[in-house]
C-alpha cells in the first residue's frame, strides 16, 4: 500500500514539475525584458516549488563578480526578504564556486560547508544552479531553505531545466537588446550627423542670434529631451551672465534676462563657467554641491541637470543647460557626450554670430553708452515717418533733443574718466524712463535724443519729460564726487509722411539751443519763431561759400598798444561780411553757423590769406614791422595740415617772420592739446605766436596753462570791466601767473581812462579797446601806426 502511495506521490510531483516547465516555456514567448523574466522565475516558478527564498545573480565576467538582479518576494511584497550580499565575487561562497565551476550543487547541511556565507536569515540547506549558454556562465540561481536536507534531485532537475530555458532566453534578450542598441547607435549617429549639418547651415542662414538660438533648440530637442533648456553668455568684462535663450516646460520665455554680479556667484551656471567642466547631476548630487557651498538653489529643484560650458572668445564664454523635472527622465553620459560635442559647433556658430553682430552693433551704436548712434536714429525716424501713411490721423512722432547741462565743466575740472562715468550713469537713469518702443540715441559729446513713436496725445511727451526730470532729481555719486545732473531739452513733432528725418533733427536741435539759452534744465518746443531762425541759418549756410568766392568778407583792424606808452605794436583782425542782399551781417550771426557746418575751415583760411595780403602791402609801402593777430577755429588744431597751410601763406606773400599771430579760445585749445603742441612746434620756424583769447572764462585754464603751447595771454573784457578804484585781484593773479610763465599779456576791452590808469600800475604789457580805437578799415589802420594813440 505504501509503495502505491509513494508511486502516486512521485507521479503527482513529476506531473506538477512538467506543468511548471510547460507553463514557463509558454511564458518565455511573451516575456521581452530581463526584469520580467527574473520576476517570473522568482514569483511564479520557484514559489510553486515551495522554496522559501531564491536569488538570481548575473555574472560580470570583466569584474569576476555576481550582481543580484532579483530575489523572491520583492516585486509583490509577499516577502520583504532580500539577500544581504548584493555583489559576490567568483571566489566567494557556494554561489561564487558554482559560477566558477559551472556546476550545480545541493548542500544538505550548509553548516558543514566552509564556503557558506551566512545571510541575515541563515539557512540550513542550499540549492545553487548555474545559468549557462554555450559554455558561458551567465549567472546563478541560488535557493536556500531553513530545513536541512530539504532539496532533492528532483528539485535539482527542474531548477536545472528552468536555468537552461532561462539562459537561452537571457541570451536571446541580450542579442535583441544589442541589436537594438546597434540600430539606436546608428540612428543616433545619423541623427547627430544631420543635426551638425543643420547647425552648420543655420550658422550661415540665421540673420540674428535670437533666430539662431530658437532653431538651435529645435535641433537639440531632436537629439535629447530639452523641454527645459537655456543658453547663457558670460561677459567677463562686465561680470554679467545674459540668458540669451530660455525654454521652460517647452515654452520659449522672455530672453536676455541678465543675472547681476550679486546673483551670479550663487548660480550653478557660474560654477560651471568657473570649473570649465561638464556637469551631469541627479537630484542628490545637485544637493551635495549646494551643501558644499559650490552654489545655491535658484528656482525649483530639478530631477536631472546637465550643463556644458563653452568658450567663444577671450571675453565671452557660455553655458548650455538642460534640466528635467520629470522623475522618469534622467540624463546620462551619452547625453552629456552628445551635448558636449554639439556645444563645440554651437561655440563656433555663436562666435561667428557674435562677431557679425558686434560689427553691426558698432556701426549703429555709440561705443561708450551702447545707445543708438545718429545713423541708426535717422534710419528709425525715416521708417517711422513712412509708417504714418498707415497710422490714424491724430498720430505723430516726437523727437526730444537733450543736452546735459554743465557736462563740459565736469569733464574739464574732474577729468574725462569721471565725465564718462557721469554720462553713463545719466544714460542708465534715462533708459529706465523711456518706453520699449522709443529710441534713445547719442548724437555726440553730451548731446542725446529720444525718438518717441506713435504719439496720440501730447500728454505722453509731458509724462516722459516728468519721468526724466524725476530720474535726474537726486545728486549722483560718481567716483566719490557728488554731482547733480540736469538736461536742456528741445522737442519737435512730425505728423506728415513728407517730412524729412534730418529736418526733424534740426528742429529739435534748434529748440534745445533755445532751452539752453534760458538756463539749466529747461524745455522748449519747436515753434514758428525758431522756424524763421532755422531758415536764416540755412540761408547763411548756403551764402557763406558764395561770400568767400566773391570777396564779400572784409577785415577790420583794432590796434594793440603798449599799456605805458600807447604805441601801436600790431592789430587784431576782425571779420565783417557785406552781404549783397542782407547788407552788413554781424560775426555773431554767421561764425557759429560756420563752426557748426564746418565751413569755418575755409573761412579762416580765406581770412588768413586776406590778413597776409594786408601785411605784405604795408611792408611793400615801407611801413614799419607790424604783427596781425587772426582768430582761428579750434578745428584747425585737429590736423597737422594746418602747419603746411600757414607755411604756404608765408611763402606766397613772403611775410616777415613773426608777422602773423594766431588767436584761439582756451577751451578749443584744451580739446586738442597734444596735437596743438605739435602744430605750434611746426610753425616755430615762422616765429608764429599763439595767443590765448578770453583767458579766465574757461573751466580749467589754470590747471592746463603750464601745458599749453602759448606765447600771449588775453585777459577777458569781463575782468577789465571791474577795474574801477583799484586792480581786480583776479587780474593781478593772472598777471602774476603770466609773469612766472614768461607770457606776454594783452588786456581786452579797455574803455575808460580809469581802467588804463590802473593797468599802468601793473605788469600788464599791452591793451586794446574802444578807449584808444574801435576796429577800423585797413586804410584807416595804417594811419594809426606812426604816433602813439
From TrEMBL:
It comes from the Bacteria. PROSITE patterns: EAL, GGDEF. Residues 537-789 form the EAL domain. SMART domains: EAL, GAF, GGDEF. Residues 395-528 form the GGDEF domain. Pfam families: EAL (PF00563), GAF (PF01590), GAF_2 (PF13185), GGDEF (PF00990). InterPro entries: Cyclic-di-GMP_PDE-like (IPR050706), EAL_dom (IPR001633), EAL_sf (IPR035919), GAF (IPR003018), GAF-like_dom_sf (IPR029016), GGDEF_dom (IPR000160), Nucleotide_cyclase (IPR029787), Rev_trsase/Diguanyl_cyclase (IPR043128). This is EAL domain-containing protein. The lineage of its organism: Bacteria, Pseudomonadati, Pseudomonadota, Gammaproteobacteria, Alteromonadales.
Amino acid at each position: 500500500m505504501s509503495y502505491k502511495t509513494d508511486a502516486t506521490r512521485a507521479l503527482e510531483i513529476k506531473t506538477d514539475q512538467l506543468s511548471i516547465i510547460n507553463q514557463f516555456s509558454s511564458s518565455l514567448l511573451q516575456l521581452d525584458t530581463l526584469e520580467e523574466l527574473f520576476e517570473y522565475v522568482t514569483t511564479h516558478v520557484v514559489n510553486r516549488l515551495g522554496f522559501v527564498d531564491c536569488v538570481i545573480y548575473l555574472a560580470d565576467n570583466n569584474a569576476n563578480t555576481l550582481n543580484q538582479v532579483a530575489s523572491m518576494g520583492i516585486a509583490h511584497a509577499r516577502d520583504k526578504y532580500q539577500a544581504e550580499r548584493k555583489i559576490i565575487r567568483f571566489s566567494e561562497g557556494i554561489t561564487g564556486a558554482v559560477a566558477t565551476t559551472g556546476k550545480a550543487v545541493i548542500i544538505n547541511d550548509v553548516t558543514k560547508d566552509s564556503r557558506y556565507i551566512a545571510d541575515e536569515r541563515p539557512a540550513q540547506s542550499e540549492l545553487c544552479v548555474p545559468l549557462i549558454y554555450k559554455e558561458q556562465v551567465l549567472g546563478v540561481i541560488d535557493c536556500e531553505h531553513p530545513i536541512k536536507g530539504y532539496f532533492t534531485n528532483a528539485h535539482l532537475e527542474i531548477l536545472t531545466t528552468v536555468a537552461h530555458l532561462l539562459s537561452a532566453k537571457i541570451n536571446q534578450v541580450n542579442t535583441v537588446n544589442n541589436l537594438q542598441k546597434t540600430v539606436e547607435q546608428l540612428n543616433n549617429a545619423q541623427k547627430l550627423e544631420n543635426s551638425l549639418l543643420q547647425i552648420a547651415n543655420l550658422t550661415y542662414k540665421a540673420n540674428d542670434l535670437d533666430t539662431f538660438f530658437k532653431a538651435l533648440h529645435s535641433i537639440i530637442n531632436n537629439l535629447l529631451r530639452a523641454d527645459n533648456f537655456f543658453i547663457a553668455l558670460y561677459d567677463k568684462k562686465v561680470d554679467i551672465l545674459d540668458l540669451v535663450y530660455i525654454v521652460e516646460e517647452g515654452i520659449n520665455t522672455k530672453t536676455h534676462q541678465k543675472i547681476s554680479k550679486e546673483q551670479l556667484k550663487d548660480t550653478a551656471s557660474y560654477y560651471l563657467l568657473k570649473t570649465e567642466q561638464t556637469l551631469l547631476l541627479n537630484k542628490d548630487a545637485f544637493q551635495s554641491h549646494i551643501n558644499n557651498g559650490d552654489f545655491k538653489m535658484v528656482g525649483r529643484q530639478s530631477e536631472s541637470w546637465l550643463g556644458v560650458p563653452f568658450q567663444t572668445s577671450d571675453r565671452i564664454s557660455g553655458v548650455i543647460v538642460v534640466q528635467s523635472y520629470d522623475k522618469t527622465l534622467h540624463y546620462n553620459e551619452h547625453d552629456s557626450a552628445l551635448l558636449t560635442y554639439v556645444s563645440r559647433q554651437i561655440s563656433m556658430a555663436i562666435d561667428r554670430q557674435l562677431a557679425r553682430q558686434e560689427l553691426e552693433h558698432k556701426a549703429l551704436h555709440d561705443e561708450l553708452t551702447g545707445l543708438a548712434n545718429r545713423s541708426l536714429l535717422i534710419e528709425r525716424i525715416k521708417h517711422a515717418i513712412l509708417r504714418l501713411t498707415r497710422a490714424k490721423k491724430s498720430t505723430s512722432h516726437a523727437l526730444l533733443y537733450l543736452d546735459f547741462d554743465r557736462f563740459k565743466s565736469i569733464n574739464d575740472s574732474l577729468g574725462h574718466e569721471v565725465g564718462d562715468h557721469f554720462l553713463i550713469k545719466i544714460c542708465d537713469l534715462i533708459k529706465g524712463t523711456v518706453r520699449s518702443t522709443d529710441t534713445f540715441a547719442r548724437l555726440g559729446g553730451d548731446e542725446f535724443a529720444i525718438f518717441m513713436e506713435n504719439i496720440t496725445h501730447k500728454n505722453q511727451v509731458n509724462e516722459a519729460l516728468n519721468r526724466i526730470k524725476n530720474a535726474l532729481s537726486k545728486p549722483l555719486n560718481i567716483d566719490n564726487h557728488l554731482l547733480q545732473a540736469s538736461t536742456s531739452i528741445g522737442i519737435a513733432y512730425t505728423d506728415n509722411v513728407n517730412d524729412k528725418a534730418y529736418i526733424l533733427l534740426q528742429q529739435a536741435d534748434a529748440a534745445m539751443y533755445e532751452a539752453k539759452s534760458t538756463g539749466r534744465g529747461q524745455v522748449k518746443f519747436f515753434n514758428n519763431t525758431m522756424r524763421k531762425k532755422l531758415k536764416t541759418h540755412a540761408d547763411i549756410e548756403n551764402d557763406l561759400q558764395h561770400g568767400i568766392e566773391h570777396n564779400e568778407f572784409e577785415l577790420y583792424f583794432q590796434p594793440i598798444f603798449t599799456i605805458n606808452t600807447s604805441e601801436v605794436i600790431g592789430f587784431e583782425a576782425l571779420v565783417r561780411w557785406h552781404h549783397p542782399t542782407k547788407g552788413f551781417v554781424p560775426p555773431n550771426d554767421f561764425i557759429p553757423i560756420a563752426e557748426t557746418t564746418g565751413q569755418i575751415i575755409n573761412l579762416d583760411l580765406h581770412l588768413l590769406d586776406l590778413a597776409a595780403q594786408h601785411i605784405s602791402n604795408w611792408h611793400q609801402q615801407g611801413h614799419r614791422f607790424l604783427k596781425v593777430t587772426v582768430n582761428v577755429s579750434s578745428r584747425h588744431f585737429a590736423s597737422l595740415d594746418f602747419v603746411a597751410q600757414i607755411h604756404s601763406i608765408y611763402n606766397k606773400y613772403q611775410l616777415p617772420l613773426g608777422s602773423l599771430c594766431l588767436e584761439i579760445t582756451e577751451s578749443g585749445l584744451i580739446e586738442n592739446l597734444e596735437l596743438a603742441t605739435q602744430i605750434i612746434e611746426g610753425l616755430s620756424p615762422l616765429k608764429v605766436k599763439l595767443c590765448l583769447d578770453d583767458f579766465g572764462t574757461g573751466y580749467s585754464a589754470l590747471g592746463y596753462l603750464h601745458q599749453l603751447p602759448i606765447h600771449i595771454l588775453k585777459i577777458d573784457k569781463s575782468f577789465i570791466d571791474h577795474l574801477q578804484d583799484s586792480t581786480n585781484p583776479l587780474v593781478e593773479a593772472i598777471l602774476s601767473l603770466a609773469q612766472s610763465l614768461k607770457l606776454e599779456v594783452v588786456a581786452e576791452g579797455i574803455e575808460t581812462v580809469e581802467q588804463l590808469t590802473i593797468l599802468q600800475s601793473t605788469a600788464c604789457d599791452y591793451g586794446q579797446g574802444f578807449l584808444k580805437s574801435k576796429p577800423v578799415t585797413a586804410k584807416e589802420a595804417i594811419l594809426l601806426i606812426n604816433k602813439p594813440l
